[in-house]
Amino acid sequence: MSLKLAMVGYGTIAPHYVNAILNNRNYELVAVCDTDPAKRTSVEKTGAKYFNNIDGLLQDGKIDAIIVATPNYLHAKQTIAALRAGKHVLCEKPMATSLEDTQGMVNAATSAGKALMVSYHDRFHSRVLELQQRGLEIVGFEADNREHILDHCDLSKAWYLNKEYSGGGVVYDNGSLVIDILLQFIPDLKFKKGTLYKDSYGVEIRADLEFEQGTIHLDWNADTEVKKTTLIEKGSKIHLINLLSSEGDTSGKYLKHEYENLLAAFLQEVKSPKGYGKRGLKIQEMLEEIYAHSKIV
Ligand SMILES: NC(=O)c1ccc[n+]([C@@H]2O[C@H](COP(=O)([O-])OP(=O)(O)OC[C@H]3O[C@@H](n4cnc5c(N)ncnc54)[C@H](O)[C@@H]3O)[C@@H](O)[C@H]2O)c1
Q1: For the segment 224-239, what is each residue's pLDDT rounded down to a tens digit?
Q2: What is the pLDDT of residue 246?
Q3: Distance (Å, rounded) from C-alpha 38 to C-alpha 36?
Q4: Torsion (CA) 279, 282, 284, 286 in degrees, nearest 10
Q5: 77 lines ligand 1 (CB under 6 A)
Q6: Above 90 in pLDDT, residue 253?
Q7: Residue 12 Cα, ligand 1 centroid: separation in angstroms?
Q8: Does residue 83 register a pLDDT over 80?
Q9: Is residue 11 lining ligand 1, measured as CB closer than 6 Å?
Q10: Ligand 1 atom having least distance to the Cα of 72
Q11: Which residue's CA is the nearest one to ligand 1's atom 38?
Q12: Buried b vs exposed e over 156-187: b needs ≥16 C-beta within 10 Å?
């Protein structure tokens, strides 16, 4: 029998979930909630029932699991409500906007005994999975992650650029994804110091982060998109992860297979919950450490 899914938030990232759900017969999209009534028509085209608020959706006893894909400041509240209503949750990244909220989500999942996974999707890139299967001993790295943020969100979606709603800037958004990949290979990843660069609007637009094992360069204001991580294996062998190019999959389409793999992994977590969002908590702790020990220029 398929798992009955609902989505909360039907914005930019939602089509990646919808495509992945349609490609996986273990799932069925039964409902979608978005507070913007203009989303009703596109939601109903998928065959899912439209809700304009989460409360109605959570009362639907047929729904097994919820995907939370709203702006970051809503993740904690909506995830905790869904877990308390007895639903499993797959929550978009970054997990929440504070350590306190993140801890609250982990506590809610643990006491409900329901799956809570955070969609750190780059971990499900085919190249990352392949390198992981090889059981490499990684001792160093260099990560370069650049894009132009306005290619991914227009100015009408100002929440991305407002710390109150997003939790932070480039470190929070792209940095958290890079850290998640690195943790797959270097569990004892240790932050040393960093420099965060703000633009004239006060948006954290660029960052250079130094870890004991390597460096991360992040840029939200770049002309070209680059998403590369070089891993250094013991014995100095180099392994390149280029998220934008693998298996003939170029120019951003990598998200397609990442979200398919992510949904497959979530199914396993639903069958036997064990993570309870603790990986997201670990990343949140590292983000807080970065902000506490970096200089701002
Ligand atoms: N856009 C990307 O490339 C991308 C990639 C990976 C992860 N994410 C993550 O996905 C999440 C959503 O990002 P997005 O880019 O899709 O944002 P978005 O602004 O495009 O979409 C958010 C949607 O949530 C709806 N919404 C707002 N408040 C709501 C509420 N209270 N209840 C229900 N719906 C509500 C909005 O109407 C909108 O349709 C974020 O956490 C983001 O970090 C986005």
Answers
A1: 999 999 999 999 999 9
A2: 58
A3: 5
A4: -140
A5: no
A6: no
A7: 6
A8: yes
A9: yes
A10: 41
A11: 11
A12: eeebbbbeeebbbbbbbbbbbbbbbbbbbbbe
Binned at pLDDT 50, 70 and 90, residue 149 comes out as confident
Is the separation of the CB atoms in 38 and 156 below 8 Å?
no
Which of 133, 232, 218, 148 has its CA nearest to residue 177?
218
Closest atom, ligand 1, to C-alpha of 119: 7
Whether the bond between 94 and the residue before it is cis, its omega within 30 degrees of 0, is yes
Q: Which residue has the tokens 């934008």?
A: 244
DSSP at 236: S
Please indicate whether residue 57, judged by its CB atom, sits closer than 6 Å to ligand 1. no
Q: Is the pTM of this model over 0.90?
A: yes
Which atom from ligand 1 is nearest to the alpha carbon of 14? 16
Q: Which domains does the chain have, with CATH numbers?
A: 3-120+260-276 (3.40.50.720), 122-249+282-296 (3.30.360.10)
Pocket test for ligand 1, best of 8, 19, 34 (most atoms within 8 A of CB): 34
Average model confidence (pLDDT) across the chain: 94
